[in-house]
Amino acid sequence: MVYDILAVNPGSTSTKIAVFRNRQEMFREDIEHDSAFLDSHPDIEEQFPFRRDMALACLEVHSYQVEQLSAVVGRGGLLPPVKAGGYTVNQAMKDRILKGPISPHASNMGALIADAVAAPLGIPAYIYDAVSSDEFMEISRITGIPEVVRQSFCHVLNSKAMARKAAEEAGKSYEEMNFLVAHMGGGISFSAHRHGKIVDALSDDGGAFSPQRSGSVPIIYIVDMCYSGKYTKAELMRKIRGDGGLKAYLGTYDCREIEKMIRQGNEKAELLYEAQAYQVAKGIGQLAPALKGNVDAIILTGGMAHSKMLTDWITDYIDFLGPVRIMPGEMELEALAYGALRILQGQEKANIYRDALYG
Ligand SMILES: Nc1ncnc2c1ncn2[C@@H]1O[C@H](COP(=O)(O)OP(=O)(O)OP(=O)(O)O)[C@@H](O)[C@H]1O
Ligand SMILES: CCCC(=O)O
Fold it and tell me: pLDDT tens for residues 259-285?
């Protein structure tokens, strides 16, 4: 049986799409969004129709008839904790994303775009390995404030896909190995994979700063900023996500531009870029206890892993912990499509999303 699957991956700076015929990729497009557009449309509800239309326009460019699709699969977003694997997009999931998002994260649009394309065609819409897939150890959830519980949240899809690939290349199964993975995209996250499960992770405001995020910042100063009367909540959130990190210091989140500044002798850019590498190394080191130091490999992945300058610095700071594998870019579209294919072929069952608030 032949299945055509559209995979859609909305990231913080880009939307990537591809059509697969079973496991064969027919075509893909990586749409990098203009930073001015992202700045002027910070809300998911505003960005969603635009990104959906761009995805549909890509199909047209490739003269692909949507009626040929068997299913659409989107990146799974920041839902309340869910299982790793596939879910059918349903009303409860859409309500949660639109009315009560855990956090306004680009990945939330994956389910919405998948549903918007699939529903008129009468075909299933799925998400796979959502960012909030939860395999945490209980000890990983504890913070110093009882009301605040750490939620499992990271680039699950790509981190697991790269760890699986590294295991395959080592001639072993993912479940036999232990990995520390640093995903370095518009957002940066770290995950500790123990025998096939992400038992702890750091991301967003809990980890390193990133090209456009603040990362973890001493909270006492943030409390002062909150009560200073100088900022609205939305303005402070933008400092944490969107306008933080390298962009806050250097005015751009494009690392290729930053490397150009460095080549032109910009010392501030060089200091900040090495600080970026150092923070990534610290994030990896912070998770090493989750594996009790039994690290088969440290994987550096995501768009920024294309940068030799960054990966050389990071390796220099961290290779005492284990062998470093550089696996640039991401395999998220493949991971989405192969997951949906396993569901369509009956090898896996799609989970039913249920929500305490939205049914
Ligand atoms: N060749 C390169 N050298 C250095 N940095 C690069 C290179 N290619 C991409 N990047 C950087 O990688 C980042 C984007 O990575 P990626 O495309 O993985 O992110 P995304 O998918 O938009 O977001 P996320 O991964 O957080 O979901 C940008 O900061 C970009 O400048
Ligand atoms: C993709 C979830 C993790 C993050 O954005 O930091």
Answer: 999 999 999 999 999 999 999 999 999
Q: Which residues contact 29 (CB under 8 A, 6 or more apart)?
A: 16, 17, 18, 58, 61
User: How many domains, the chain?
Assistant: 2
Which CATH number characterizes residue 84's domain?
Answer: 3.30.420.40
Distance 189 CA to ligand 2 centre (A): 6
192 plus 121 within the same structural domain: no
Ligand (nearest to CA of 211)? 1
Which pLDDT score is estimated for 324?
Answer: 98
Q: Collect all residues with Cβ–Cβ distance below 8 Å to 294 and sequence separation of at least 6.
A: 178
Q: Which of 107, 156, 214 to mutate to test the pocket of ligand 2 (most atoms within 8 A of CB)?
A: 107
Distance of CA 30 from the midpoint of ligand 1 (Å)? 11
Cα 302 to ligand 1 centre (Å): 6
> Ligand 1: does its nearest atom lie under 6 Å from the Cβ of 260?
no
pTM assigned to the model: 0.90
Structure tokens belonging to residue 230:
């100088």
292 shares its domain with 251: yes
Mark whether 110 and 243 lie in a shared domain.
no
Write out the residue range of the structural domain in which residue 84 sits: 4-135+333-352
